From TrEMBL:
This is Polyketide cyclase / dehydrase and lipid transport. It comes from Gimesia fumaroli. It comes from the Bacteria. CDD domains: SRPBCC. The lineage of its organism: Bacteria, Pseudomonadati, Planctomycetota, Planctomycetia, Planctomycetales.
Amino acid sequence: MPRADLRRSASDKTGVGRGNFKEWAPLEITYQQEIIAPIDVVFSFLNDDEKMKLWMEGLESTEYPNGENAENPVGTEFIQIIREGGLTQQYTGMVTEYEPPTLLAVKLQSNAFQINVTYELTDLGRKTQLDYHCELVFASLFHRIVGFLFCGLTKRILNTQMKKLSLLAEQESVRRPPPAE
C-alpha cells in the first residue's frame, strides 16, 4: 500500500544562514509505490513537461529561461507556474541529478521555502518501484510553523498526485504495443 511519511530530522540547528534560508532541520517527506508499468513509461511522466501537467495538480507551465538541455539537463534552470488555491505561484528550480530512467532530482525555491525532490525508480520487470523523497527547508521560523501546520494537507496532495501518476503510467502501459522480440 502506498504511503507518504512526514518526519523531522533529529538534529535542529538554528541561526546559521544559507542564503535566505536558515539551517533549520528540514521537513522530510517520503513516499514509495509499486506501479504496474515499465520503468521508461513511469520516467516519461516525471521527465516530460506536458505529461507532468496531467498528474501534478495546478501545474500550468514550465519555462526554461536559459534554454532546455534535454541531453544533459543537470544544472538546467527552470520556472514552474503552479495554481494553488486560486492563486498563481512561481517557483524557480534547477535539475540537480538526472540518470534516465532511474533518477531525477530537482531543487525548487520560493520566498517561503526551498524543496529538494528526488524520484528514484527501480525496474521490477513489468512493474516499477517509485521512491520519492523531499526535504523542505523553510526561510523563517514562521514559515516552518506554517509548514508543520499544513503537513497533513501536504501529505494528502502528495498521495493524490502519486496515485494519479501511477494510474496514468499504468493506462499508457496497457495502450503500448508489446516489445519486439
